[in-house]
Amino acid sequence: MSAEAQAATARVAQFRRRLWALAGVLLLGMTLSLFLGRYPGPYFTPPATLRDNELARAVVLNLRLPRILAAVLLGATLAAAGTTFQLIFRNPLVDAGFLGVSQGAAFGASLGIVLLGGSAAMVQGGAAVFAFLGLAASYLMAQRLRLGDWVLRLVMAGIGVAAFYSAGTGIIKYLADPLKQLPDITFWLLGGLWAITWQDVLHILPVVLPALAIIFLMRWRLNLLSLRDATAFSLGALPGRERLVMLIASVAATAAVVSKAGQIGWVGLIVPHIARRTLGADAQAAVPGGMLLGGLFVLLCDDLARTVLSGEIPLGILTSLIGAVVFFSLLLSNKLELKR
Amino acid sequence: MMCEDSRRDTSRAAISLHDLAFRYAADAPDVVQDITLDLPSSAVTAILGPNGSGKTTLLHLILGLLTPQRGRISLNGEFHSHRRASRVLGLVPQEEPPAFNLNVLETVLLGRAPYLNLLQRPSERDYATAFRALETVGMAALWDRPIPALSGGERQLVILARALTQEPDILLLDEPTSHLDVGNARRILNLMRDLRAQGQTVIFTTHDPNAAATTADHVVLMRQGRVLRAGAVAETLTGNYLSATYDVPIDVVQDRQERLLVVIY
Amino acid sequence: MKLLWRVLLPLVALSVLASCTATPLPAAPETAPATETTLRVTGSIAGERTFTAETLRALGTRETAYTNKDGQTTTYTGVAFTTLLAEVGATADATTLIFSASDGYEAQAMRADVTACEGCIVALQDKGGFRVVLPDFPSNIQVRDLVMIQVLSDADAIPQAPETTTEDIPNDGPVTVTDAAGRTVSLERLPRRIVVVGRGPYMALHLLYTFPEGRTRLIGVESKSASQSDFIIHVDPNFADGVVSLAANPNPEQIAALEPDLVLMKSVVMEQMGKALAQVKIPVVYVGLETPEQFFQDVTNLGLLLGNSTRAEEVIAFYQSRLDRVISRVADVPESERPRVLLVDYSDRGAEVAVQVPALAWMQTFQVKAAGGNPVWVGEAQITDGWTVVNVEQIAAWDPDKIFVVMTYDHDAQAVIDSLKTDGYWSKLTATQNGELRAYPMDHFQWNTPEPRWILGFTWLATRIHPALFADVAMQEEIYAFFGELYGLDRATVDQVIMPKVFLDVR
């Protein structure tokens, strides 16, 4: 084997080690998060409390643990979906907000709150149904458009569908009772994990895990799908069909987590960037790296959201705030050249 | 002479096109039509014509990316599935702006996709194939350079290496030199000659008659979606045919080594 | 990897920043200064002690120079902490001192640090009272106007929720109620630690306080606005001390930290919270309050939960008699003689004025209908829940006989009514010209909302819609009766704290 080939093999092993280290950090973070909270006192829960306080055990096992899992799933899903969207659309500035997926979910949830009685099932069902309708509408519209290549058509259709949904959400907000429902919609749009129970986690797992597994297993393939149609085709891929599989996996997982957590901004946009910058642009590393970093990022934000103040801080505010800070520090870092 | 040899070698065609016609939409005009053509194997074939003459469309038809409304295409006398075809045909597309920051090796490894299923990732053997291709084009030392950091010529070499990593019977290059300076263009063209010397079938499109004159054994002249003439380079690249192809007066002269030189007034 | 740290570091920095700004600054309302300021010392000591300036000075004083952060040096006279803690007999396991000031401010110091420092004293202030002087300690623990020192051992150091009522409860459970959300809730024994959260927490809070047991068993309430306790502190002066005020939107864990055995919530859209609380086995009872039927059910439930059904019956009887009086008198009024009434909510953002009509299922619509009015907006407000904005054109089309304008306490009612009366469109309305444009009354809280005051609003509406039928009803007396019978406020107190806030005929 040539020296270059050996160096290349060593590089692959190095990335693998980094991913495992990141996974270790995430596990450690999840374990530590179990001992952060507002019960019995603010901030840190001494492990000894768990031995003799039954309520503390219930809080840790039934409130914190599912919430921590949900935070990690949420982050991993948004980051994986974001990476997928960015690669497929060959555009580093897109996330699930494209194709009317997030807007569809928001519209569906608002509809559930205002017109369908606001029960949990209605909110979540509405979000999932309309997220998929968003994707389907964008996709069907794109097929009927007659300009540009597939990606451009899809993006244009997505912008149109997103605008429809945003208007719809606006109408619903207008109709909502400002005292009772509007705060609910607002809180939902800002997002949060405070009401997560084991049941919620178990609801989303059957969707999220297979979807993440598909994205994870097909991660090398994503490199291929980020090429132009003709090139991807000449390399033996069926770009349209394979992209659709990846999109469905991303949207299903996104709708599932978003239906439980509300709209959480910036994760899907910023985490894939960080993953690519730190672990390389190759989707082989960027996809699992993005999932791990996304899980870690949302876990951190949610720990802050539930621990820092005695009132819950909406998670969406924290992810946007911290995401913006990270984004600027990336932009202002000395590696100023546009890395994509 | 080389072209004489190559003509004798083409008892079996690498690609046979029969009565091919294609249009983008039912109510649109034909982009290519009436194309019946044999492209020889183990030779360099240039598809030459002005902009919009249907060269790239023809290439995409051969790839299977477009489905003709009429006609048949066979590769080495056989009709292939898409997946199988990607092991027979390797494409170097017209300039492809890098979407993300992949490095040289990661880009070249994509050429192994025809041999991997949806869930497989490149193995050590695939790495070895990729490095062999990089050595062929002389880019092995730059294996970890990000693609956006490369010059246009280097980038073209990397894409060529990716196509070679497909281990294809037939190499298709779409306008491989059109955005390169003279030196880089020459390097690519010479590389095509070297590959042909190793028995590789090479087909490229170009709108530059000199590129065809210096590199090809076989030339297909295209104009307005039709084949104006196809055949060995000496019989095809004549002043009359070239003038008819480009609508400007063109002369072909020979230098002292009997190499063709196309002069455009 | 280096880049990864560059990314993570701001996160960590931000979280540190966030936790710093989050240091709780208890904003308890100022307690009235006592005639003579005393210093209480409690906790892990031989026995609770209270010092006056004189008895403290008797322990032996020393002087300490303290330089504040502006560089000014003052010399204080006081008693060294070592002396004081020895005097009160602080136990060996006591580790922490918590200083409380008269304004509710609290700060904490480690006993070892304070006793290791000779110059650390409890000083006598020139203006009277006491303060903490800890040279070289952070300025935020130099507590002035000190009223209490708690000496805590590690075991007590976790902040405790207010103490549970120790009273013996007769007929102590089990109890089963069906709440406003239609859920059946069973409790083994009666709740002693009740927490009120959710939207409009004051609505459930005010209902709870119609029961004397409510005061002793309430331990926490979500605080949505600074003015939320404006009324309740007049009913229960110890409210601020005895009840933990939770920040808005507490998460389930924060509620669990109070270790409640019952959580009361108004809104059914908050079902998610109930679901989460169920995970830690904290029972939730929803109150509805939107209609008299719901209200009576809520009162009955509270009677069962507080073990005082007699009081529940009293409360219901109070409401029933007033409800019946209005309904029976307007029963015979023919449809044609029922005035066409418009009730609107007024809001202005800058120059922009918006008025909106309530949903059909809401308390406000019920009030107008049951008081013998004919709500004109019935055809328009088809939304089951919520306010609907109406424009002036629509109001002109209705041209109602009487208009009642609901507004929040931060509006000057007279100014709003005056501005409407001079408005080009509003001034043309029949109701305005006939002097039938009125502000809807309130005291500290509005009378039109689903909270106990709805009966006041309802009675007032009846007297203004059908003055002839209710000539014998004196609203002043209604107010005395309401606050007297439900909250135990005597006439003098009502005159002092309620009446100044009440306006009955702003038009």
The rounded distance between the terminal residues' Cα atoms of chain B is 28 Å
Average pLDDT of chain A works out at 85
First-residue to last-residue Cα separation of chain A: 31 Å
Major sheet attributes of chain A = 2 strands, antiparallel
Main sheet of chain B?
6 strands, mixed
* Low-pLDDT segments of chain B: 1-11
Mean pLDDT of chain B: 87
Explained architecture:
The complex is a heterotrimer of chains A (about 350), B (about 260) and C (about 500). Chain A is built from 14 helices and 2 strands; from the N terminus they run αββααααααααααααα. By secondary structure, chain A is mostly helical. Chain A has a two-stranded antiparallel ribbon. Chain A starts with a helix and ends in an 8-residue tail after the last helix. Mean pLDDT of chain A is about 85; it is low at about 335-340. Chain B starts with a helix and ends with a strand. Chain B is built from 10 helices and 11 strands. Helices cover about 35% and strands about 25% of the residues of chain B. Mean pLDDT of chain B is about 85; it is low at about 1-10. In chain B, strand 6, helix 7 and strand 7 form a beta-alpha-beta unit. With about 260 residues, chain B is of the alpha/beta class. Chain C is of the alpha/beta class and about 500 residues long. Chain C is built from 19 helices and 22 strands. In chain C, the strands form 5 sheets. In chain C, strands 17, 18, 19, 20, 21 and 22 form a 6-stranded mixed β-sheet that branches. In chain C, a hairpin with a 2-residue loop joins strand 17 (about 340-350) and strand 18. In chain C, helix 11 packs antiparallel against helix 12 (about 310-330) and helix 13 (about 365-370) packs parallel to helix 17. Chain C is elongated and about 85 Å long. Mean pLDDT of chain C is about 80; it is low at about 15-35 and about 155-160. The interface between A and C is large, with 56 and 46 residues.
